[in-house]
Design goal:
Helix content is 42%, strand content 19%. It is of the alpha/beta class. It has an eight-stranded mixed beta sheet, sandwiched between helices. A six-stranded parallel beta sheet has the order 11-10-9-12-13-14, with helices on both faces. Helix 1 packs across helix 16 and helix 7 packs across helix 13. It starts with a strand and ends in a 7-residue tail after the last helix.
Length: 382
């Protein structure tokens, strides 16, 4: 009977590069026969999408989708989503379930109890310390996580500081698998210069990723509005709730540009079209303080020096490997000072360190950790 692996995440599964890389690694290991990446259906997307012979994306369409965004409505939608997944795979031989966020963990426990599946809690954030969550929501999340995490066979996190936190909170250290890109030599691109008619002498700053609160987007925009330096421009590439504000700024200011998010497999090609990358996540919660985001490692992979704020794992990596700038002041004023300082000659001084950095911080090294984690469960003998 076909050995099935489920990856459960409550999104439309359009830009989840980490899940795509992990499932590709699991497929290569040969420990399962079929992998389903299960998310939520969104308008314009297929409900079923084949990635290759082993991997398929399933997007669940909900009858309750029209209920709105209130707390009760979200609870009903989550319950329907989990029920539909449970019913669809109840008769399948589900040998492993990967749950990528806390809300889906009860469903993972269901499969562990009723299907004797191995359960992997594979979180890229501190799920109980998310940005924007109030004290009550955090408290409830901690109760749920503490009650379920001992049922989990393996926890995987994306930052050493996350592992420290989980070990202190629950007494067991997770495996650390960084959200790193594949090691690749991407040639210098001129995509942005061609599309936006940016001259070759100008320095292109890039922000790529989610366009939401807590990422210094307002400060970056304001810094470029205020700067008198005509030789520097910024490109925002991504999607999210602040997209419209960025688009409006791009319409009004000649040194600000917006580019829609691109497919995960195309990201590095576009990243290589810039000169320096912003990763100015704000220290608004423990999850952000301890994070080591994928875009930071993507910048490094294609030779872009990285700009980070003065805290946490990001600062440690930049200072240890000397691959970018740590801003003591990441307000618009501090960003403006960096804009005035940076030039192409200075950016070239980081190239050698970035090349060595990427030889260490790449997916090929991270999947060695994954291989050790998954092989120890001996699924083939199940």
């Amino acid at each position: 009977m076909t050995r099935v692996n489920l990856h459960i995440y409550g999104s439309p599964i359009t830009h989840e590069s980490r899940i795509l890389r992990e499932t590709e690694t699991i497929s290569k290991l040969g420990i399962v026969d079929k992998i389903y990446i299960i998310g939520l259906w969104a308008k314009g997307l297929p409900m079923e999408e084949s990635l290759d012979d082993e991997r398929t994306i399933l997007r669940v369409k909900l009858l309750s989708a029209k209920l709105g965004e209130g707390t009760l409505a979200k609870s009903i939608k989550l319950a329907e989503w989990m029920a539909r997944i449970a019913l669809r795979f109840l008769t399948k031989r589900v040998v492993m379930v990967n749950v990528d966020y806390l809300a889906g963990l009860p469903l993972g426990v269901f499969f562990k109890v009723f299907k004797r599946s191995k359960l992997v809690y594979d979180t890229s954030e501190l799920e109980t310390e998310r940005n924007g969550w109030g004290a009550g929501r955090k408290k409830l999340a901690k109760i749920v996580e503490r009650g379920l995490i001992n049922v989990v066979d393996q926890t995987i996190v994306s930052s050493p500081s996350y592992a420290d936190w989980y070990e202190k909170a629950y007494g067991k250290r997770p495996a650390v698998v960084l959200n790193a890109p594949k090691y690749t030599a991407v040639a210098r691109q001129d995509i942005f210069r061609g599309k936006f008619n940016i001259s070759g002498d100008k320095v292109i700053f890039l922000y790529q990723g989610a366009l939401g609160k807590g990422r210094s987007i307002e400060s970056i925009v304001e810094a470029f509005i205020q700067t008198a330096d005509k030789g520097k421009v910024v490109v925002f590439m991504g999607y999210g709730p602040m997209e419209e504000a960025v688009r409006e700024a791009a319409k009004e200011h000649a040194n600000i540009f917006f580019h829609p998010a691109v497919k995960p497999e195309d990201v590095l090609e576009y990243t290589a079209a810039a000169d320096i990358g912003f990763c100015l996540i704000e220290n608004t919660c423990l999850s952000y303080c301890y994070t080591l985001p994928n875009k930071m490692l993507e910048y490094a992979m294609v030779g872009l020096p990285i700009v980070v704020a003065n805290f946490g794992e990001m600062r440690r990596l930049i200072e240890t490997h000397k691959v970018g700038y740590v801003l003591q002041d990441s307000t618009a004023k501090g960003i403006g000072e960096l804009i005035a300082r940076v030039n192409k000659a200075e950016l070239q001084t980081f190239k050698e360190n970035l090349a060595e950095f990427s030889k260490v911080y790449n997916w090929e090294n991270q999947e060695k950790v994954l291989a050790q984690v998954y092989r120890k469960y001996q699924f083939a003998a199940k």
